């Protein structure tokens, strides 16, 4: 399922034959498939209507734990199903007056009154109609009505026929934790017909996909081709960008198939013939009315429609899917510039906060029974064990992927604190990733924000040396306390009933690091910011602190050394002994690093950082203020910037989506008056610096005795 994003993010790229849905060789019989295909597992809900626990166990084991697709047929036999509710005429009643952006042939989107489109669709396919709308004047052939907001009536009917743990915003869906204002629209309706479909893709952020065909005219079906995540590299070797992708694809020669990001672009079509000699078997589903398809996390899939059909689709987030998102998909999204949409970091934090509150209530309950414990089925040991496992996954993500990267070890005197209402509201203007706590902001540009990851890569706006670190008004110590409190409550309430508990004090490893030992993301950015501030227009040149050899950021990138890997290291301890000054230049070259027994290792890919096939989801020029880093292409880059004379800033133009780079402006360093963002309170301990000063001085004395 594709969640609809802002229309101003659209590429509107031209297509050639390789980008157009193949219309032949559609598979229509799961029992008669070519040798390179195998039918996905299919069950009927009729066998499980009296066995709800057995059905739940099957879904958990087969789809979630083993990561396999599953078809559940005969959902129309479940009490509560209504053919009338799901009819085309009723959809016109529910949503006919809505204006929807429909996918027309040649990759063109048009805003159309949905009722007029449906009327034309019924007319062209000889489907009976109540004629409640005038038909669309132009042909509806090959037009796909996808990502339509579902009528509320559909949601009500789903609750009657789908088990609650599979429902959107149900007990096993962490989307339900997010405040309404942060939730992406997740329940979508798809009105398909002949020669329409969705290219190969994975559902966002590792979520599990669910797709129910609720209506179809005689003979209609949808062909699903599914490739599990374990076959990703083999799939990459047979999918290649077309010639018209050259503005958003940077291809190596020979191609680096296994490093390709083309499969994440939502522009790749898989033809059945491509799989003839593949070293894996693709799974096939021929979905018909009443079939519920469950797609496991990170599985690639494409859909082609035959006949007229309505499908309802939604995604669920679980602790396991969040783990996959942080491990695999979110880092990739930041590189290829794909909007995250789902606010995964906020979901982790808010889920732990909510669950922690409920564990406290359970702990203080005289009966040891609460609505929360009943909701999660704590009476059964297996459900308590599942909750414990999910808690452990979320806690590990919270500490390792969310809290630890945000810690500062050199102090935060110059970090600017946002207004009170700016919590979980900032999004990176380059990669569209969601910001959790700290980020960079340009006061000269019009509200330009950059996540720590993009800043550490070298991405920026034109005012490279003027970007300043900002932070959420919420003290990060609050999150550290939440982590500790949750571990204690989980071990005190659930742990004893299972006979095991989580390790306590895991956070101490991160909190007790000395500044020069830290290599986390915020500290890396802080070192880089300090260096840029000191070096001014020479910030792209680094000088080895041992031998004084100079190297540019681009030269290092060609050697396989990223900007982040340079500033991830503190200054060599041999050099820090000589001064108490906070070193801005922490660089030591490869040779000196190898020869020095106190230099920390320098991360080196041993090949150019461009040595892979990069295919953007959105090109960096979607916002003309963007300046790319070493690996970006067809865009101005900060690593190529050498300007000595600052200019007076000019008004920032309204961002216009375009696949071509904008002209390169010169570096401007004139700032404008500050906005209402306030500086952090000097007593705020959102970093670990103040409490480690004494220990740091002691360590220095040990390292450099008088």
UniProtKB/TrEMBL annotation:
Residue stretches of biased makeup (Basic residues): 696-706
Biased composition (Basic and acidic residues): 681-695
Pfam families reported for this sequence: JmjC
Bias kind Pro residues: ranges: 648-664
This protein's UniProt keywords: Metal-binding, Zinc, Zinc-finger
Residues in JmjC domain copies: 156-333
InterPro entries associated with the record: JmjC_dom (IPR003347), JMJD6_ArgDemeth/LysHydrox (IPR050910), Znf_ZZ_sf (IPR043145)
SMART domains with a match to the protein in the record: JmjC (SM00558)
Superkingdom to which the source organism belongs: Eukaryota
Start and end residues of each stretch annotated as Disordered: 644-706
Name under which the protein is recorded: JmjC domain-containing protein
Record lineage: Eukaryota, Fungi, Fungi incertae sedis, Mucoromycota, Mucoromycotina
């Amino acid at each position: 399922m594709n969640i609809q994003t802002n229309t101003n993010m659209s590429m509107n790229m031209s297509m050639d034959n390789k980008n157009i849905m193949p219309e032949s060789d559609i598979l229509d019989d799961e029992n008669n498939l070519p040798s390179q295909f195998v039918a996905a597992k299919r069950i009927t809900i009729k066998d499980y209507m009296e066995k709800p626990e057995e059905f739940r166990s099957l879904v958990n084991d087969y789809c979630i734990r083993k990561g396999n697709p599953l078809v559940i047929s005969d959902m129309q036999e479940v009490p509560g199903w209504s053919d009338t509710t799901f009819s085309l005429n009723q959809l016109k009643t529910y949503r006919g007056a809505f204006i929807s952006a429909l996918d027309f042939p040649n990759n063109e989107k048009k805003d159309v009154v949905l009722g007029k489109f449906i009327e034309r669709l019924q007319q062209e396919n000889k489907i009976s109609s109540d004629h409640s709308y005038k038909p669309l004047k132009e042909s509806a052939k090959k037009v796909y009505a996808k990502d339509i907001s579902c009528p509320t009536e559909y949601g009500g009917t789903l609750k009657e026929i789908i088990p609650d743990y599979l429902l959107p915003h149900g007990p096993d869906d962490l989307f339900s934790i997010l405040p309404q204002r942060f939730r992406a629209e997740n329940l979508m309706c798809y009105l398909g017909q002949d020669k329409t479909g969705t290219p190969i893709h994975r559902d966002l952020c590792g979520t599990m996909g669910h797709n129910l065909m609720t209506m179809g005219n005689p003979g209609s079906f949808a062909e699903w081709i599914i490739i599990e995540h374990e076959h990703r590299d083999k799939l990459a070797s047979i999918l290649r960008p077309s010639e018209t992708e050259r503005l958003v694809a940077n291809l190596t020669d020979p191609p680096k198939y296994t490093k390709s990001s083309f499969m994440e672009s939502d522009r790749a079509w898989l033809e059945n013939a491509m799989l003839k000699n593949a070293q894996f078997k693709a799974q096939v589903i021929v979905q018909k009315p009443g079939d519920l398809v469950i797609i496991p996390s990170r599985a690639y899939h494409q859909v082609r429609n035959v006949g007229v059909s309505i499908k309802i689709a939604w995604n669920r987030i679980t602790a396991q899917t969040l783990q996959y998102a942080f491990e695999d998909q979110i880092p990739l999204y930041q590189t290829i510039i794909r909007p995250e949409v789902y606010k995964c970091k906020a979901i982790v934090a808010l889920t732990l906060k909510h669950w922690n509150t409920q564990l406290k209530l359970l702990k203080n309950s005289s009966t040891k029974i609460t609505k929360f414990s009943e909701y999660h089925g704590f009476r059964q040991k297996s459900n308590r064990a599942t909750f414990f496992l999910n808690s452990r996954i979320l806690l590990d993500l919270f500490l390792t992927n969310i809290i630890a990267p945000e810690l500062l070890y050199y102090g935060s005197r110059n970090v600017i604190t946002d207004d009170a209402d700016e919590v979980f509201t900032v999004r990176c203007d380059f990669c569209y990733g969601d910001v959790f706590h700290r980020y960079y902001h340009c006061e000269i540009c019009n509200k330009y924000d950059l996540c720590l990851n993009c800043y550490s890569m070298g991405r920026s706006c034109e005012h490279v040396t003027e970007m300043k670190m900002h932070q959420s008004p919420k003290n990060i110590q609050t999150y550290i306390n939440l982590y500790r409190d949750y571990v204690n409550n989980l071990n005190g309430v659930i742990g004893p009933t299972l006979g095991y508990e989580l390790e306590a004090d895991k956070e101490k490893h991160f909190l007790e690091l000395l500044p020069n030992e830290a290599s986390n993301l915020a500290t890396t950015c802080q070192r880089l910011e300090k260096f840029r501030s000191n070096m001014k227009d020479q910030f792209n040149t680094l000088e080895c602190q041992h031998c004084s050899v100079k190297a540019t950021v681009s030269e290092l990138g060609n050697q396989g050394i990223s900007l982040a890997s340079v500033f991830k290291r503190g200054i060599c301890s041999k050099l820090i002994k000589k001064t108490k000054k906070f070193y801005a230049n922490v660089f030591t070259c490869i040779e000196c690093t190898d020869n020095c027994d106190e230099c920390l290792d320098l991360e080196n890919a041993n090949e150019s950082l461009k040595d892979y096939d990069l295919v953007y989801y959105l090109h960096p020029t979607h916002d003309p203020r963007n300046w790319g880093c070493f690996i970006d292409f067809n865009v101005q880059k900060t690593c190529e910037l050498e300007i000595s004379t600052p200019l007076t800033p000019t008004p920032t133009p309204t961002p216009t989506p375009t696949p071509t780079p904008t002209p390169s402006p010169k570096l401007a360093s004139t700032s404008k008056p500050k906005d209402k963002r306030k500086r952090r309170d000097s007593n705020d301990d959102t970093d670990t610096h103040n409490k480690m000063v004494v220990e740091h001085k002691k360590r220095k004395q040990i390292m450099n005795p008088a």
